[in-house]
Design brief:
3-stranded antiparallel β-sheet, 5-stranded antiparallel β-sheet
Length: 599
């Protein structure tokens, strides 16, 4: 993957052809417009077709959809939108009424089929309802008003009591507030609830029938968005009497198509290379296989046009970090299975397909790493071929620390080397190269002192690499031009400030220790749940089976969720913060093509 090279294009044409030319550019769909005026578009132009979008969103959330109608001539979109929004409004009203009825039925059911007599039949007396905990029943002996126990709920330890009084009793009559039962009997409430359920089913059926218009509604929304963007583009052109100017960024690969468009439409065009003062947008070339790395990183940051695309590195490093944090074969397999179950929704877009491929690779790396450490739902294979391939001991703290630090140093060295390559025509390239030497030298010293590498790495090679790297950082980080002794002094101070960042480098490398810590915690938690389940199983020959099953199910579901969350959050954090901090100096903004969305 790479960042596509862009050209700045300026088009000149007669004013009467402005609308036609902009429509053609929108159909071509490869131009990122540069506003030439500060005049904003009218508010009505920027408004999105809210009602049509709302109707489409309501239908797209339906569980099932009908065969799509694609003939635009047989539908009045405004009528369809009104029908859909009426269905949405009615569904919500009936659903709210159903929920209230369900609540009323739950409140009234313990009292049974209750019909209130006329007040005249009770000589002006009224019934007041209370639900008392059995522990508060003694409070009834202290009241002077007549009362009657109607029912008891032995499971919830509740008593249902009616107090008879002409006026509403005082709030402190009993230790609980009175219940509001209402005058509608239980049978009528249940009938109304059944009616609302049937009406709700009819509305759901109507909604499903309306899903046949999804495609046409989507086209209507796209057409209105196209019209809004076209109107906004017209307001950003520069008009000079009888001529107009349109300016934008276009990929070099589309230059021939743009030249052909200009010849066909009778407009002049000037193509220019980006200058140092220009800030072009970033257009990433994403491959179907590994493009998910750029998509994942794109949620947080877009690389600068003059930088490099770290998507390939993120694809592999994020997958490795995720697998090490999961640290279990079955957890990683379940993650891949979940992605496979949602493959239909993910394949609906190119970005979704790329992210699906990334998720599959993350699952595969997790399975391989889990097999290497021998963890299957927190249990070891206990012999056989699976046990023979489990050669990594997760409890060997020294080895795992060294592996985590090695991965971190390698990750940051790659970032610095790529930054040096991008700036290879400038002396500044020696600064990131120097940081790569400093990090590699520091790792060599540590591994040499611990006996992992020969002592020569600790005594000779490591210090030499750090010395040379530190000199590169001191001398070439600053791009300040030296014209006087003062400039030389300031450049020296810039170099010292840059060398002081070695503390930041040390902290960033240690951040990769979280790979070992999170992987160990997840594996330990899985083993703990297994141990608790075995203890419950051995404690009772009958009920112990039930409790053991519940512990295993709930425990591993919780641990699985925590591992996924940790793998995604911390795996991406190491790429977005540590890696990007050393690999990308400036943030860019994405290329936004002025294109038609309607088919």
């Amino acid at each position: 993957m790479a960042i596509k090279q862009l050209n700045k294009i300026t088009l000149y044409g007669p004013s009467q052809d402005k609308a036609h030319v902009l429509q053609g550019l929108q159909s071509m769909g490869c131009l990122h417009l540069i506003p030439l005026t500060d005049q904003p578009a009218e508010a009505s132009v920027r408004l999105q077709p809210a009602e049509a979008s709302e109707a489409l969103a309501w239908l797209e959330r339906a569980p099932r959809t009908r065969r799509q109608v694609k003939d635009k001539s047989i539908a009045d979109i405004d009528t369809v939108v009104r029908e859909v929004l009426d269905n949405k409004s009615s569904t919500r009203e009936v659903s709210d009424a159903r929920d209230k009825l369900e609540e009323r039925v739950r409140e009234v059911r313990p009292w049974g089929e209750f019909h209130f007599p006329e007040v005249s039949q009770l000589d002006g007396q009224r019934f007041w309802f209370y639900v008392l905990p059995e522990g508060d029943m003694s409070a009834l002996n202290d009241i002077e008003l007549p009362w009657q126990l109607m029912a008891k709920d032995n499971r919830q330890k509740l008593a249902y009591v009616i107090v008879i009084s002409e006026q509403e009793p005082a709030e402190d009559l009993l230790p609980v507030s009175r219940s509001h039962i209402g005058i509608v009997p239980l049978s009528r409430l249940e009938d109304e609830l059944e009616e609302s359920e049937q009406l709700l089913e009819d509305l759901y059926a109507e909604r499903e029938a309306l899903t046949r218009w999804n495609y046409l509604l989507g086209q209507a929304v796209a057409a209105r968005q196209d019209a809004a963007e076209l109107a906004e583009a017209q307001s950003t052109t520069q008009d000079e009497q009888e001529f107009f100017l349109v300016q934008g960024w276009i990929p070099q690969s589309e230059r021939q198509a743009a030249e052909a468009f200009c010849i066909e439409n009778g407009v002049a065009a000037l193509f220019e290379e980006p200058t140092e003062d220009d800030h072009p947008p970033t257009l990433l070339e994403k491959k179907p296989g590994t493009g998910g790395g750029s998509d994942a990183l794109g949620f947080f940051q877009t690389p600068n046009y003059r930088a490099w695309d770290p998507g390939n590195v993120v694809f592999y490093s994020f997958s490795l970090f995720f697998g090490m944090i999961m640290s279990d074969v079955m957890y990683s397999f379940l993650f891949g299975l979940i992605v496979f179950m949602f493959r239909g929704k993910l394949k609906k877009s190119e970005a979704g397909s790329r992210l699906m491929n990334l998720a599959y690779f993350m699952s595969a790396v997790g399975i391989v790493w889990g097999a290497m450490i021998g963890s299957y739902f927190g249990a070891s294979p206990g012999g056989g071929i699976l046990d023979s391939i489990a050669f990594v001991d997760l409890n060997d703290y020294n080895a795992m620390m060294k592996l985590s630090v090695f991965i971190g140093v390698a990750h940051l060295i790659i970032a610095n080397i790529m930054t040096a390559w991008v700036n290879r025509s400038r002396s500044y390239a020696l600064s990131p190269l120097g940081w790569a030497l400093v990090m590699g030298g520091g790792l060599s010293i540590w591994l040499g002192m611990s006996g992992t590498l020969p002592e020569a790495f600790a005594d000779l090679f490591g210090p030499a690499m750090m010395a040379v790297g530190g000199a590169f950082v001191f001398l070439f980080t600053s791009t300040r031009k030296v014209r006087s002794a003062g400039d030389l002094l300031l450049r020296g101070l810039d170099g010292l400030k840059a060398v002081y960042n070695i503390t930041s480098a040390f902290g960033d490398v240690l951040s990769y220790m979280r790979l070992f810590a999170l992987g160990l915690s997840g594996a330990s938690l899985a083993m703990t749940f297994n141990s608790l389940a075995m203890d419950a199983l051995h404690s009772s020959p009958v009920i112990g089976v039930l409790f053991a099953g519940l512990i295993l199910l709930l425990g591993h579901v919780l641990n699985f969720a925590l591992c996924i969350m940790s793998g995604v959050v911390h795996g991406m954090r190491l790429n977005v913060i540590e890696f990007v901090n050393w690999g990308l100096s400036d943030e860019g903004y994405p290329f936004k093509a002025f294109s038609k969305k309607e088919d």
